[in-house]
TrEMBL record:
Keyword Oxidoreductase carried by entry: no
Gene: lpxK
Broad EC category: transferase
A Gene Ontology BP annotation from the UniProt entry: lipid A biosynthetic process
Gene Ontology terms, MF aspect: ATP binding; lipid-A 4'-kinase activity
UniProt pathway: Glycolipid biosynthesis; lipid IV(A) biosynthesis; lipid IV(A) from (3R)-3-hydroxytetradecanoyl-[acyl-carrier-protein] and UDP-N-acetyl-alpha-D-glucosamine: step 6/6
Protein name: Tetraacyldisaccharide 4'-kinase
EC number: 2.7.1.130
InterPro entries attached to this UniProt entry: LpxK, P-loop_NTPase
Family, per entry: Belongs to the LpxK family.
Protein's job: Transfers the gamma-phosphate of ATP to the 4'-position of a tetraacyldisaccharide 1-phosphate intermediate (termed DS-1-P) to form tetraacyldisaccharide 1,4'-bis-phosphate (lipid IVA).
CC terms in the record's Gene Ontology section: plasma membrane
Length: 329
């Protein structure tokens, strides 16, 4: 995935010349999405489906939130399966993720999530839900799929970046939006604001009566790593968040290298990163999501840094999960 253009940002504004030029195409794109959603009749699975999605292109923190949903459902006695498209992978599915699957086959998110939870990869979400049910799932956590009308969702959480919000507020390709915000809000049960200041309303996010939770992600750096200089690299939606998190945790960051989201690293790129870190006698750090895309040979000598998720109102999340409909026997 390519990096988003600068004129998509809230800082550049709605009136950037390119945003204005592309605005008619955004209207066409938005109308097509609305028409698709309006005409579709979602198929209801025999088990409850919880969706975590967003309305902007790029990453916002869905993957750790999906893992949190699965963990909380497990604690409640459910057998949750995560259902994902497997973005960046070659397999169309439906297939259950297995340890021998690589990120090139099932995508980095599916590979990372499958370390802790059962994961079904399927471009066809309805067929994926059927496989999850057949494999023994009592609930499905759908990673993304907010604009996918094929499968009925019992509860949908809409994630919004607390800093960048909805960017310049325009629909693709004039901006980062996948659809009109007001229409999206009508399909959500709650908003999850990821990062940002608590008193700050994310840019271009309409006022809403939806319940709101705030979520934060913090880098968990092992104590033995804090006293050493470091280089870091990342190819996620917003790599600068990872770099800032390392510095906040106390890492002396000498060099940072950004790649496009879901970037598949070449042997030459990794060798170059390792050589530069060695020249500075520095450790080489990356995210767990990036680490999932490395081969065993590439991963040697690179430290993945996990992220810790915190919610300001976990009881509200548990309330939604506890109210899920019973599976159909």
């Amino acid at each position: 995935m390519i990096s988003p253009p600068r004129f998509w940002s809230a800082k550049e504004g709605r009136h950037h010349p390119l945003a204005l030029l592309l605005s008619p195409l955004g209207g066409i794109y938005g109308a097509a999405v609305a028409r698709k959603l309006a005409k579709s009749v979602p198929e209801k699975a025999p088990i409850p489906v919880i969706c975590a999605g967003n309305i902007t292109m790029g990453g916002v923190g869905k993957t750790p939130f999906v893992a949190e949903l699965a963990s909380r459902l497990s604690a409640m006695g459910h057998t949750p399966f995560i259902l994902t498209r497997g973005y960046g992978g070659s397999l169309t599915g439906p297939v259950r993720a297995a340890p021998e699957h690589t990120a090139a086959e099932i995508g980095d998110e599916a590979r990372m999530l499958s370390c802790d939870h059962p994961v079904i990869v399927s471009r066809d979400r309805v067929e994926g839900a059927k496989l999850a049910h057949d494999e023994g799932a009592s609930a499905i956590v759908m990673d993304d799929g907010f604009q996918n009308p094929g499968l009925h969702k019992d509860v949908t959480f809409l994630l919004v970046d607390g800093e960048t919000g909805l960017g310049n507020g325009r629909i693709f390709p004039a901006g980062p939006l996948r659809e009109a915000p007001h229409a999206a809000l009508t399909r959500a049960a709650a908003l999850v604001i990821v990062g940002g200041r608590e008193e700050h309303q994310p840019p271009h996010l309409p006022e809403s009566a939806l319940p709101v939770m705030r979520m934060r992600l913090e880098s968990v750096v092992p104590l033995e790593r804090l006293g050493q200089p470091a280089h870091a690299f990342s190819g996620i939606g917003r790599p600068e968040k990872f770099f800032k998190g390392l510095e906040t945790a106390g890492v002396e960051l000498l060099e940072r290298t950004s790649f496009p989201d879901h970037h598949m690293f070449t042997e030459e790129e990794i060798a170059r990163l390792i050589a530069r870190a060695a020249a500075d006698d520095a450790q080489l750090l990356t995210t767990e999501k990036d680490f999932a895309r490395l081969s065993p040979d590439q991963a040697d000598g690179i430290t993945p840094i996990p992220a810790r998720l915190t919610l300001d109102n976990p009881a509200l999340l548990d309330q939604f999960l506890a109210s899920l409909p019973e599976p159909v026997r």
